[in-house]
Amino acid sequence: MLGFLKSYMPRSLYARAALILLVPILTLQGTIALVFIQRHFEQVTQQMAEYLMIDLDYLVSFLEVGGDTSLAEAQTVARALHFRIEAPDREVGNTDTLAFEDVSGRALISTLRAGDLPIRRIDLSDPRRVFVSIDTAAGPFVISFERRRIAATNAHQLLVLIGVLSVLLTFVSYVFLRNQLRPIKRLAEASIEYGKGRVIPYRPSGATEVRAAGAAFAEMRNRIERQVQQRTLMLSGVSHDLRTPLTRLKLALSISDDPDAPDMLGDVEEMEHMLDAFLDFTRSDAEAELEYVDPIALVGDTVAKAQRVGPVTLLQSEGKGMMQLRPDSIRRALDNLIANAQRYGTHVTVAAQLGERNLRIIVEDDGPGIPAALREEATRPFVRLDPARNQDKGSGVGLGLAIVADVARSHGGQLRLSQSEALGGLRAEIVIAR
Is the whole model's pTM more than 0.85, yes or no? Predict the structure, then answer.
């Protein structure tokens, strides 16, 4: 039952708060109005019907005498009492007629039936008039009168009052509720944007609990920013300081006559490659401001440059439009995916799909792929999956997929690894929400 209700519950906080506010109010007022109006109609109709029976009894007393003179007198009395007397043109049945929702009609019928009048049938099918079929000594007659004589005329005032007060109170409650929910909405927007790598101005406000949560978020965001900056500065400084002695070593080894100098020079170059990878990893989440760029064109330019190194096929792209991205970061992530695919496969394809909700950049190869059990581990820094990817075809420090995953996360997206159905190797997909 709870699962069924959850499937129909609104998703937003505003809608749920409005539902919590409106349902009790409408239920309470509707129940009170229904019970009160029903009793009001029944009691008023019953009282008015009792007075009506006195007039009917007086009118029937003339009809009971019989004769033309009595009928004429009855017509005179009927006009004075606002009744209308007619002789039935056909046989009248014994079944009363009324609508299902006619509450006052039921009260009228029960009251008239409880009296001593020789009533055969009461017809309430006409909403404006009531027809009462009576058997008298002079024969059957149909006495009719206006329905408003036994109906309450001011019952709608209660409905109008309830409706006006409900709208007014709901509006006041909505204004108050919106002011209370606005700080929560601002906190959610700031959290979502920060998850996408965007820092927007945010100041805690609202109730005490909401203000405390907002202050905790702001402090957490500032602490993360400080840690990222400190890590970036530290690794950048270490990498910069190490380049000078490495350059001297390369120069000394290049002019050295030592037979081991070429091997040592290769080690030095590998160290430089590792430093470059470290810098790429530190820059992946400490990037510049977001820019509106065409992601399809960005992928096309990156693939065109990668084709100078090895064969890469750019598949037909889908979608058009601009999107907020860090172009250098996206290029670096795509370069890493293409480089890995070229290293372990002979056929590489790249596709870009820009939809209404997200951007998808897909790189596939025909290499050995990565087992499903190791795909999550493959995106961690400094992890090298030698059994899954042939190490003899290239060396690395285990930061390629980690950089891609970090770039995707900094844009509020993710990196998905799976098996390529078209090529049989690895399928790497960057998904970024718009």
Answer: no
The CATH class for the domain spanning 287-433 reads: alpha beta
Which of 319, 315, 270 lies closest to 294, judged by CA?
Answer: 319
> Which pLDDT score is estimated for 388?
45
Which CATH architecture is the domain 203-283 placed in?
Answer: Orthogonal Bundle (1.10)
129-136: which pairs have CB atoms within 8 A and are 24 or more residues apart?
132/56, 133/88, 133/92, 134/56, 134/60, 134/63, 136/60, 136/63, 136/64, 136/66
Cβ-contact 128, 23 below 8 angstroms: no
Rounded to the nearest 10 degrees, the angle between the axes of helix 261-283 and helix 208-254 is: 160
- Residue 364's DSSP bridge partners are 349, 427
User: Rounded CA gap, 58 and 62, in Å?
Assistant: 7
The model's pLDDT over 5-23, given as tens digits with 9 standing for 90+, comes to: 666 667 777 777 777 777 8
Contact (CB, 8 A) for 286 and 256: no
Cα 53 to chain centroid, rounded: 61
- Nearest CA to 33 out of 173, 155, 168, 170 is that of 155
- At 121, which helix (H) or strand (E)? strand 119-123
